[in-house]
Design goal:
A hairpin with a 2-residue loop joins strand 2 and strand 3. This protein starts with a helix and ends in a 10-residue tail after the last helix. The chain has eleven helices and eight strands. The protein is globular. The chain has helices at residues 2-16, 28-43, 62-74, 83-96, 99-110, 225-237, 244-260, 268-293, 302-324, 336-345, 355-366; strands spanning 116-119, 135-139, 142-152, 160-166, 177-183, 189-194, 203-214, 218-219. The chain has 376 residues and is α+β, with helices and mostly antiparallel strands. Helix 7 (244-260) packs parallel to helix 9 (302-324) and helix 9 (302-324) runs antiparallel to helix 10. The structure holds flavin-adenine dinucleotide. Flavin-adenine dinucleotide is lined by residues 118-121, 126-127, 151-153, 347, 350-351, 353-354, 356-357, 360.
Length: 376
């Protein structure tokens, strides 16, 4: 069954992956080219394989999804511009959304009619997400939302966003928050692109000035946003955001690069280490998928995976740059992808919750170590 599926995916990708890489999705042109690619995937029912058929999926198992991902990355297929919606919001809607929300939002997400941004971080609330200040004030039939969100990946060109807002100012921190969905083109929304380390401007700040969010775009109950957001976060750190296929493909390319450079003995160990760690992550993820398929939950263990893949990604790309030597800096050359991907790998220990915070979660929730005393 899995072999048949693997063969189908491999054949389809071999026939459809663009011969030349698409322009970066952090540019307007690249964003639309990636949207068109998402539509091709959707037409082949390969955009969201684990979703129910009614929403454009194939009811595939997690094991099949891992196979899909391995083939996808091995084929060098384009980055998934719909990632925030597909990997983060969709699992949240399956768990907490209403049937009406699922019917209305998921098919448009699968077909890339709506590409979503995650609007959580604020200028004074990153690691300490419960410090958010953006607020929603009750209005007839919905909420009027105001505040500033920042570091929104794909935010400059995306269509809609999911965010956390303080809807009960009488309650503190984790309480009184609501999980709201809004259009990035709604009246009162201003999107300001942020230039990234690599020079592109796909990131954005979002300014909201009394933006109307109807009741039907509240996920779960008003005030229950923190619990729902933590479910999204465990997907972000856990299985769906960074599959082993991504790192297996990169490790394979690293081995190829090492061979091409004449088998540099000084870097042999780092190359082997990257390959072994990618394979270890694959096996660990397969075990997690089996546990979930047997009715288990993800929980704080997601933090282990997040620290592991982000550190692996960085070490792997540093080794590639060492192998390339001075050529590593030639961004427009045939090996330019290594530098691009290295710049992005630098962010891995920061996004999806910084690794310092993940280590605290691992210490307290998995190892049962005492909580850190507040500093005086
Ligand atoms: C590439 C990238 C994409 C992103 N995409 C999105 C997105 O789409 N949507 C979104 O909402 N946000 C996004 N973010 C933002 C990201 O979630 C935050 O940057 C992250 O949560 C850290 O918050 P901060 O930047 O405010 O840093 P801070 O929270 O100010 O942390 C600064 C430093 O202090 C450390 N620190 C803070 N508190 C503690 C503590 N209690 N114990 C130990 N160390 C601590 C942190 O680990 C970090 O090293 C993205 C970030 C990056 C880099």
């Amino acid at each position: 069954m899995t072999d048949v599926f693997r063969a189908e995916v491999r054949d389809w990708l071999a026939a459809h992956v663009p011969a030349r890489p698409l322009p970066s999705l952090d540019t307007a042109e690249g964003f639309e080219a990636h949207r068109a690619w998402e539509r091709e995937l959707a037409a082949a029912r390969l955009a969201v394989v684990t979703w129910p058929a009614a929403y454009g999926g194939r009811d595939a198992t997690l094991a099949q999804w891992l196979v899909f991902e391995e083939e996808y990355w091995a084929a060098g297929a384009p980055a998934r511009v719909g990632q925030n919606g597909l990997s983060l919001l969709a699992p949240t809607l399956f768990a907490f959304g209403s049937p009406e929300q699922r019917d209305r939002l998921l098919p448009r997400m699968a077909g890339a009619q709506d590409i979503w941004a995650q609007a959580w971080s604020e200028p004074d609330a990153g690691s300490d997400l419960a410090a958010i200040r953006s607020r929603g004030v009750r209005a007839a039939g919905g909420w009027l939302v105001s505040g500033t969100k920042t570091w929104c990946s794909r935010g400059a060109f995306a269509d809609r966003a999911f965010g956390l807002f303080r809807t009960d100012p009488a309650l503190e921190r984790h309480r009184g928050l609501s999980y709201l969905l809004f259009s990035l083109r709604a009246p009162g929304v201003t999107v300001r692109p942020i230039r990234q380390l690599g020079g592109r401007t796909g990131f954005a700040e979002i300014f909201l000035d009394e933006v109307f969010v109807p009741d039907r775009d509240v996920v779960g109950a008003p005030g229950d946003g923190w619990r729902i957001a933590m479910s999204t976060a465990s997907h972000e750190r856990g299985l769906s955001l960074r599959s082993p296929g991504r790192f297996l493909a990169a490790a394979g390319r690293l081995v190829w690069l090492w061979r091409r450079s004449g088998g540099d003995a000084a870097l042999e160990e780092q190359v082997a280490d990257a390959w072994i760690r990618a394979r270890a992550y694959q096996l660990h993820t397969q075990a997690t998928a089996d546990r979930l398929a047997a009715g288990g939950t993800l929980g704080a263990e997601a933090s282990l995976g997040k620290v592991f893949w982000s550190e692996l990604d960085l070490a792997l790309h540093e080794t590639a740059l060492d192998l390339l030597g001075p050529w590593a800096e030639v961004r427009d050359g045939p090996d330019g992808r290594w530098l691009e991907d290295y710049l992005f790998a630098l962010a891995g220990p920061i996004y999806a919750g910084t690794n310092e915070i993940q280590r605290t979660l691992i210490a307290e929730r998995l190892l049962g170590l005492p909580r850190e005393a507040p500093s005086r």
